[in-house]
């Protein structure tokens, strides 16, 4: 993404998948992009929470707290997690040390920079509401012109002023091509789901 911040890469939902994170970071490096934001769920499901946390920290990647991160640090009721997520959370919890726990515990729910908002859920602390379920009210859940969201695991984009009865989100749909460009008009409010690394 090209912005007043310069070229930035946005990643999300790594879920302790070191191989996937390494591959994505290699691609980002090959593009010469220096700034990266992470929209949360650093841990969960995968087998490498320690290594993924270490890579996020060593690369100094600002991260948002995702629902799996919040569950691990006991900031979220995990009773609605599926059995695989619960099992992974228990394993991840037993594998990290106090310093890594503290790193996850201090992650913010939202970050805003130069009018761009970065969150994990919609609104920032609602991990049970998916964009498909929020209707046109989705744009009342954030204040910035441009908001990047994780959590759903598929890439999508919605434009506030392109909604109609058949397409209540102004939804462009999942990206058929990783190299597809979406021009952002300065007067349009846009919500972008970035998909999952892991």
The amount of beta strand, in percent, is 15-25%
Question: What characterizes the major β-sheet?
Answer: 5 strands, mixed
The rounded distance between the terminal residues' Cα atoms is 20 Å
CATH topology of the largest domain: Purple Acid Phosphatase, chain A, domain 2
Number of strands: 8
Q: What is the count of distinct domains?
A: 2
Instruction: State the assembly state of the protein chains.
Output: single chain
Global morphology: globular
Radius of gyration: 16 Å
CATH class of the largest domain: Alpha Beta
Look at the structure and give the mean pLDDT: 83
Instruction: Count the DSSP helices.
Output: 5
CATH level-two architecture of the largest domain: 4-Layer Sandwich
The topology string of helices and strands comes to EEHEHHHHEEEEE
Helix content: 25-40%
Structural class assignment:
alpha/beta
Instruction: Extract low-pLDDT stretches.
Output: 172-176
Side by side, the strands of the main sheet go: 4-5-6-8-7
Supply the CATH superfamily name of the largest domain: Metallo-dependent phosphatases
Features:
198 residues, alpha/beta, Purple Acid Phosphatase, chain A, domain 2, 2 domains, 5-stranded mixed β-sheet, 3-stranded mixed β-sheet, 5 helices, 25% helix, globular
Notes on the protein architecture:
With 198 residues, this protein is an alpha/beta fold. The chain has two domains: 2-109, Metallo-dependent phosphatases (Purple Acid Phosphatase, chain A, domain 2), CATH 3.60.21; 111-194, no CATH class. The chain is 25% helix and 17% strand. The protein has five helices and eight strands, in the order E-E-H-E-H-H-H-H-E-E-E-E-E. It has helices spanning 18-30, 49-58, 67-72, 83-95, 98-105, and strands at 2-3, 6-11, 35-38, 110-113, 116-119, 146-149, 155-159, 190-194. A hairpin with a 2-residue loop joins strand 4 (110-113) and strand 5. The protein starts with a strand and ends with a strand. Residues 172-176 have low confidence and may be disordered.
